[in-house]
Amino acid sequence: MSFLKVLAVAAKRGRATIRYPLEPPLVTPFFRGKISVDPSKCIGCGACARICPPRAIELVREDNRFVLRYFIGRCIFCGMCADTCPQQAIEVSHEFELATPRLEDLYEEVIHRPATCSVCGEPYLPRKLVEKAIESSGMEVARERLEMCPQCRRISTAQVIASSRLRFGSDLLEAGEVEERRS
Amino acid sequence: MASVSEILKELEVELGTKVLNISRIEGGVIVSIEPSALPRASLILVSKGARHRMMVASDDREWLGRFSLYYIFGIDREGQNIVIHLPLDPDNPVAPSVVDIVRAVDWYELEAKDLMGIEFEGRYPVPRLIMPDTWPEGVYPLRKDVSVEELRRLSEPWISERIKLEEVEEIVRIPIGPYHPALHEPEYFELYVRGEKVVGARYVGFMVHRGIEKLAERMKYDQVPFIAERICGICGFVHSTSYCQAAEAALGIEVPERAEFIRSIMLEVERIHSHLLWVGVALHLLGYDTGFMHVWRIRERIMRVAEMLSGSRKTYGLNVLGGVRRDFDRDRLEKAVREAEEIGKEFAELVKISIDVPQVRARLRGTGILSPGEARAFAVVGPTARGSGIDIDVRKDFPYAAYKRIKPRVPVYSEGDNLARTLVRVDEVFESIELLKHLADQIPSGSIRAELPPSFEPYRIGIGAVEAPRGEVIHMVITGRYTPYRWRVRAPTYQNLIAVPTMLRGVELADAALTIASIDPCFSCTDRAIVIDLRRGSVERIPLRKIVSRWRP
Amino acid sequence: MDSTPVSASLAAALAAASFLLPPLLDGVERKIRAAIHSRIGPPLTQTWFDILKLWSKEAKLPRGAELAGLTVLIGLSIALALAATLSTFAAFGLVGVGPVVAVMVMVFALHSISMATGCASSNPFATIGSFRRVFLNVVNEVGLALSVALALVSRWFIPSWKGWALLGISTGMMLVACFCASGRLPYDIHEAEPELASGTVIELSGPLLAAELYSHLIERWVLAALPFYVSLAPFLPSAWARCLALVLGSSGLWTLFAVTSATLGRSRADLALRSLGAIYTASTIAWVGVWLA
Ligand code: SF4
Ligand code: SF4
To answer: What angle do CA A66, A69, A70 make, to 5 degrees?
Structure first.
């Protein structure tokens, strides 16, 4: 008859369920929830979009702007984006109560002003990214080349090589492009 | 059981020139043989006590100019694999069937036919295993020349036909059962009953084949662990670990010891969670909901431990190629161990109470028997094998992660009934708690992630296996330059499920649910069963909403 | 003896209680089960809400089980009549062999009609469920009838010690029979969730399900009151005492049944037959033993 001891167990443990949502949910401080992108820190490099396993973050060009779009509906809350972001622009929150009747609520966007090609006038990268690239190249002289879209830059590089002038920084730039293409 | 070198020698002597090549890989050898020599080779392997672990079909035309079959046999005592590699003709891939020699190879052959278009000679014609009946002939999804986009298009061809047929503009498509997503699991059992006795059973599965292996061929190495972890909602970490181990073995990446310990810690947390969940479900199937609720109350505590350690209650997301992403500090580890000990105490009390409930005891003992001989023939794994007296456990036989340093005790029961399988799991909970203590105690300091090589060498083969709560999980990776070239996943249920009809024979209908659940099946969503009453000839469909328990999404 | 108007109004009050209380007691049972599960559980009035909600839904006769519509309604009428009759008999002190037999006949009629509900359905789950119920009833109805008969016989020997002992044994047997007949765990095998979905009632919905549920709860009330009616009421002097004994006794026994069933698992047809058979045989032998002593 020792199965009756379950009554003692129940008495000792009391109530295990809570009156959620009237009582606060049980999340520890270590919980990984929704992410948020700080628009002031984000430079639109797209590293997060490339690593995100379910492609919940995308970096897309829309008309005359670049949009970093986070779709909560796809997010698996892994935090890989936050680990990857070179600017530490992404923060992982504890938020998980994300249900909503409106689909729009599940999208968050960071909008980037584009850099337009100095030759053809096409928007080709987010402005901030180009600025960052120039800054980290440490050479204001690189600006001229970085202000061109990849297509025009290639043509220009070809011309430069053809006229066997000095080539500076182009190795670096080409390598960057190849990397981009791959992913 | 013979040793690897003895078996190799015998293979060379017996097969002579039919052995094309022998090469070493991490954890074993690959023996390439001519297809016609396969029956002889498998006979030798089986008679020497090798255990069939997995068979992988791969489209290797890109680098070998052939299709390949890889039969992975485990020599459990040595922790080594003998991989029989069969290169097949690229235009007409045909291999001899060995299902009469290796019973466990059954589904693998069917799967290779469905997904890769490999023909097996000497099998009676069988229906498709994985692809639906409406699937066009001659399109084999895993072949490299078939794109994901094409597969998407092909998977809905009938709808436009239908629209024409019905002469309507628009059809709202509402798919309802037998493969209904709202039902727990889209699998299907036919139970043949006489009165209340089950006299036979048939299983039809693969309703939710998700094609993630194909998907991963387009993902980066570091993204795959996350999709691997979503193969199963309960034991996902074993899949990401297996995948990482396979890829690491193939690429020769040395994982730092601390990362290995962290992996083992999470694996044991996952095992405790899974077994608690299972015991709860089993009690529910036995109508003892009080036990079910209390076990799940305890289970909640281990989920919180998991969240504290990994940031997530269940899908931990810690594994990356070469190690793990998060480190544990001393404080949290100690807290986790303390909590686990508490959980152990509470669980012990509850198990005693539950087993003492007369109905629970009466319905567990002597039901759903799988004899050791049958268990061996089906090559079942995990608690299903250990409940039938087969002493195998990947942690002990093929040590990986921290189990190279810390050996688990492996409980084995020989009765082969539902009670034996239950007790194996119960004992394992306590053993996992012990292990957690040792792991937390002995975890070395250091880095948690290895430096990755600057580029990945393609076409290297790696095997990774993990003892999941339900048994051996095994992954094989053939590397590609940027993404895995071929990734094959084998979950324990794949191996255990074919034994279920045998276990069901002779049980009362009332215990069928528990018996099916006793292998802890991991279908990807619920099942339906048909009960055919042989006496009256009537057919019943059971929405196995509740029958098959573990409805693991 | 009480005056007729007093008895009559007490009968009416008791009947009203037996119509209103069962769903509330079921609410209590759910709370008790929740407490034993360490859960909060639904509010006490939940079962009443459930019944009213189902009642307000569209009436749909299950296809292939049109007869079930009829049997459910007959069942409900029998259940209401049974509760009213029991209340009247208790209030007026009609506790002799004749009234008890009349009550038992109604109880068996109610059981038969609810078995018929399951059999009326062509749904195989309902069919298997009904078969299980028939199996179980073969043993349990015999046990119930036997225990009531033995209790009636025991009453002749009172007030000797033997009479009390005999009454004790037969009442104990009656408690088991009533518990089993109330269809609680471990004897709810006719609607076992895991393998039969909800078995006998699987095809019912809306008002039909509400009626079935309600008559089942009234049946539970009667079964919980029965031991007090047969074994206690004859020894109580006033209508007040008898009515109070029935209300308190039935509620108390309901609670005890609730606790008991929450600590057990679900039986299996063959196991249930065996264990009930053993209990009834043993009690009968004990009863005969005491009688011969
Ligand atoms: S948390 Fe993971 S899934 Fe979500 S956006 Fe970041 S990388 Fe993508
Ligand atoms: S990785 Fe960081 S900086 Fe780059 S796009 Fe994402 S959020 Fe912005």
So the answer is: 160
Residue with the bigger pLDDT between A146 and A165: it is: A146
Q: Where are the alpha helices (DSSP H) in B155-236?
A: 158-166, 212-216, 224-229
Å between C42 CA and nearest CA of chain B: 16
CB contact under 8 A, C197 and B543: yes
Class of domain B4-121: alpha beta
Class of residue A94 by CB neighbours under 10 A (exposed 0-12, middle 13-18, buried 19+): middle
| CB-based contact B457:B479 (threshold 8 Å) | yes
Q: Considering CB atoms only, which of A3, A16, A30 is closest to B308?
A: A30
Cα distances from B125 to residues B203, B277, B376, C253, in angstroms, run 17, 40, 26, 63
- Give the best residue of A7, A12, A13, A19 to mutate against chain C (max C CB count within 10 A): A7
Q: What is the reported pLDDT for B175? A: 35
How far apart, in Å, do the first and last CA atoms of chain B sit? 39
Query: Using a 6 Å cutoff on CB, does residue A47 contact ligand 1?
Result: no
Q: How far is C129 from chain B (nearest CA, A)?
A: 11
What is the Å distance from ligand 1's center to B110 Cα?
37
Q: CA B475, B478, B479, B485 torsion: positive or negative?
A: negative
- Find chain C residues with C-beta within 8 A of A10's C-beta: 35-38
pLDDT of residue B177: 34
Whose structure tokens read 């622009």?
A89
Does ligand 1 lie within 6 Å of residue A80's CB atom? yes
Shortest Cα distance, chain B CAs vs residue C231, angstroms: 30
Residues in chain B with pLDDT values less than 70: 1, 155-190, 195, 202, 204-209, 522-553
Q: Nearest ligand to the C-alpha of residue A57? A: 1
| Phi and psi angles of residue B323, each rounded to the nearest 5 degrees, phi first | 155, -140
Could you say which ligand is closest to the alpha carbon of residue B225?
A: 1
pLDDT, position B522: 66
Average pLDDT of span A51-60 = 93
Kindly list the domain boundaries of chain C, sorted by start residue: 5-292
**Nearest alpha carbon, ligand 1 atom 4:** A75
At C235-272, the pLDDT tens digits run 998 999 999 999 999 999 999 999 999 999 998 888 89
Tally C-beta pairs within 8 A across A and B: 67
Instruction: Note whether C79 and C109 are within 8 A (CB).
Output: no
Domains of chain A by start residue, with CATH: 25-112 (3.30.70.3270), 118-175 (no CATH)
A70-74 average pLDDT score:
94
Give the pocket of ligand 2 (CB within 6 Å): A 37, 42-48, 68, 85, 87, 89-90
| Domain limits, chain B | 4-121, 188-208+497-550, 212-495
* Residue B380 three-state SS: coil
* Measured distance CA(B238)–CA(C87) in Å, rounded: 64
Q: Cβ contacts (< 8 Å) between B223 and chain A: which residues?
A: 51, 53
Predicted local confidence at residue B160, as pLDDT: 54
pTM: 0.87
Judged by CB atoms closer than 8 Å, whether chains meet at A7 and C40 is answered as no
The answer to whether A76 contacts B294, with C-beta atoms less than 8 Å apart, is: no
Q: At the fourth CATH level, which superfamily is domain B212-495?
A: Cytochrome-c3 Hydrogenase, chain B (1.10.645.10)
Report yes or no: C51 and C218 within 8 Å, Cβ to Cβ: no
DSSP assignments along B317-370, one per residue: --EETTEES----HHHHHHHHHHHHHHHHHHHHHHHHHHHSHHHHHHHTT-S--
pLDDT in tens, C17-66: 999 999 999 999 999 999 999 999 999 999 999 999 999 998 888 776 77
Give me the pLDDT at residue B507, please: 84
**Whether B226 and A2 lie within 8 Å, measured CB to CB:** no
- Chain A touched by B209 (CB under 8 Å): no
